Amino acid sequence: MRNIWITAVLTLWGSTAIADDAALLLGVERYGALDRVTGAAGMVGAEDALTGVGFEVQALSNGAATDLSQRLTAFLEDVEDADRIVVGLAGAFATDGRRTWLLPVDADDPGLFNLGGAVSLDSVLRVLQAAPGQAVLVIGADSGSADFGPLLRAGLGAIDVPQGVTVVSGRVSDAVDLVADIAVPGADVIATVKGNRRLEVTGYVPVSLVLVPADVTPVDPPETPAPSQADAAAENALWDGAQALDTADAYRNYLSRYPEGQYAEQAEALILEISTEPNRADRLAEEGLNLSRDARRDIQRDLTILNFDPRGIDGIFGPGTRSALTNWQQENGFSQTSFLTTEQITRLDAQAARRAAELEAEAERARAEKERQDRAFWAETGAKADEPGYRAYLETFPDGVFAGEATEKLAAIEDAKRQQAAAEDKAAWDVATEANTADAYQTYLTSFPQGAFGAEASARIAALQDPEPSNDAAIAAETALGLDGITLRLIEARLAQIGLEPGEVDGGLDDDSRRAIRNFQGDRDLEVTGFLNEETIVRLLADGFQTLGGD
After folding, report:
1. Is residue 120 part of a domain?
2. Do 181 and 214 contact (CB within 8 A), yes or no?
3. Counting Cβ atoms within 10 Å, is residue 508 exposed (0-12), middle (13-18) or buried (19+)?
């Protein structure tokens, strides 16, 4: 909407003429969201030369939409009753085929209905027709590759030139040189253009067009005196204030006071950065919350519980966390900025607390169902108090409620068999267990098909032929967590609290602890390894335990 003013204001002319001749020089080179237009900022280089031959010049390089608007307004005030008018435009242009616009430095994803702040060539031409025969528009537009969506493309469209207006277009470097040549006394614009095959002239094309008579003596611009200590102190104070505010308006205020100041280039760069940074206000608002490292970990843990993977719980908001936050914001109807507000943090925490309670309730139901099946299976197997029953139970529930009892009973049975076995049978079994290979146990079975240790030999053969999967990766993942003794005791205490019997709470993670961890993982549809990883810890401590410690 910022550009609507130009169409309306062009229907009304100011009442005060400032100079007989007027010039407007705009060059936009360093775009934030578009490709750079090399050399476009050089369009303002002819400002002093035009001023020296009687022009009132409005010049701006790399202007944002607000800055362009201010210069165009000043140009309109200069142009009434002007005998000569020169306009030089260089940068990235967009067209719908019939109309053309010069895009400001902060143009972001321009579209046919999203061109606020762009400079309309139609409007500029309406201004130029106020000085027929002495009005020149010079356009520098290198071919670009930007795609602006349907109905709008990069480059120049057809230009409807008013009567008496001369329009010259070409490459940026040639257009910049031409504007500088126009300021030379006696220079013939038409001759210069015809001498350069890279320039094209349309509209009013007389045999000769000299805007600055040969007898005009250029006036050199006055030398700028070195700033006094007081002036330097005032400039530094204004700059310090602009940096403290860190807003585009604050930097523009500095530039309006010190357009050639020692911080001018830095101010222009910061205006561009601020104008083109998406979600800057949201970023600054989040930074204002001063979230601690632990608070950020809590947010990452909440995201994990809600299945928005932040790719780590380290208190550092990197691309993974920002992506997870964006997805969460989308699902919850917030603007997808990836930056948080106090309201969003409160809602995220509440959702995670509720989900943690739901997950724990689901896990408790799964544990209860598993225990019911465990006890029912024991009633049909282990309760029979025989070796086949114990083995059947352990095969189905290796970490079951009665696993310890079944293991002890089998050990007692084997010990009894050993005592009852014949010396030869016993000796053969000792040889097989010493070798502990499938072939050794098979040799025993062949020699003693009815031997006292036949069932145990078959079980060991099956175990050796179908070994447990390697836990190397799970062990490495747990080791990488760097958990200390206090943390491990906290984990064992939690396992004991929910009835999984991890044994003594000493931080040792013995066989009882591993079995408890496996049962916890199985109840919650996690990968069952018996070793700790980040997901297991998040679920284990999801009901309110504080940060485990460590980065």
Report:
1. yes
2. no
3. middle
